[in-house]
Amino acid sequence: MTADRRQSFHDIAHHSSDGSTPYLVSAWQHLVGHEYGAREFADTYVDFVKRWDWDWVKINPRAVYYAEAWGGVYDPDDYQGYVIPKKISSPITTPVDIEGIRELDPLKTPEFAEALEAARLIRQRLEDRAVLQTVFSPLSVLLQIADLPLYPDDGYANSNTTVEDFIFNQPQAAKSALEHIARTLAGYGASLVRSIEDGGAGLDGIFYAITGTVSGGYFNREQYLEFSEPYDRIVIDAIREANPDAVVLFHTCQADSHAAWFDDGAFEFLQWDPFLQGNPKVADSLTSVPVVGARSQDFADEGGIDRIAANAAESIAALKGTPFLLAPSCTVPTPASDRALETLRDLRV
């Protein structure tokens, strides 16, 4: 592609594209073995982006750095064959431990400071394309701190408590913790999108993930409005204030993930999985620019290549004349099939 990919990204975000770039392509992955240390991670992530020549960048930091910031301890040398390192200890052993969750200074908290430095390094080395950092919602972070599921049937969560006891049975304590987390993430998000000259990381925006918290009724509409939406707003408002040009890509994961709840014009991009039960189809009319393409699980091995090609072709055909972002529905597996990634990469225009 000869056009300025970074400018094309912003043109698509703001519905101002002239149509010469029908879509931009990207994918992201956990780079197990290279996730600790700002320079180590940045170098490896830049290599990953350049290897596949993705049109835009969604930084995919290690999955547990939020929990680590609030006292969780993990073994960086033992991922147990997955993308989450082995948990050594948790700051949450009983529901009352929620009272220990306080606001952090992201500039002085090692995990956030490391992530900011890595983001800054990636920005400086990939100036020709838009770069977004992943930021989990405060509710997702609270669940992670307690090692509670981020989506229904999360088989990797191993908590000492339950959502009912930790959140629903002590709502005021939960809301206090959520506000402390939200204020922390607000400062972190603002630093990510401020210019490097002003001490920030200079990113183009945020990939804002509520994970699978509303999938399949895990948190219903009323519970989302009570325990997530007010705190999401704190984070996103801070990002908008820090940089009015920053883009927000909103991600809701898994089946029955209620994408329509979030299609209110508040976010430039909206990502969901249109190929899972209960979700809008690719062709359904949405206000936000869609981020669609193929199911992330299909990248695990070569058996998914035909489905990737078919789903991507369906997305491209359904959105003809409507510029969008072509991407997997979530993080591709580690490891992923090179041929599967090539299938997506080769769709670049």
From TrEMBL:
Molecular-function annotations in GO: uroporphyrinogen decarboxylase activity
Domain Uroporphyrinogen decarboxylase (URO-D) as annotated: residue spans: 43-343
InterPro entries, per the entry: UROD/MetE-like_sf (IPR038071), Uroporphyrinogen_deCOase (IPR000257)
Example of a GO biological process term: porphyrin-containing compound biosynthetic process
The protein's name in its UniProt record: Uroporphyrinogen decarboxylase family protein
Highest taxon listed in the record's lineage: Bacteria
Source species taxonomy: Bacteria, Bacillati, Actinomycetota, Actinomycetes, Bifidobacteriales
Pfam family name, one: URO-D
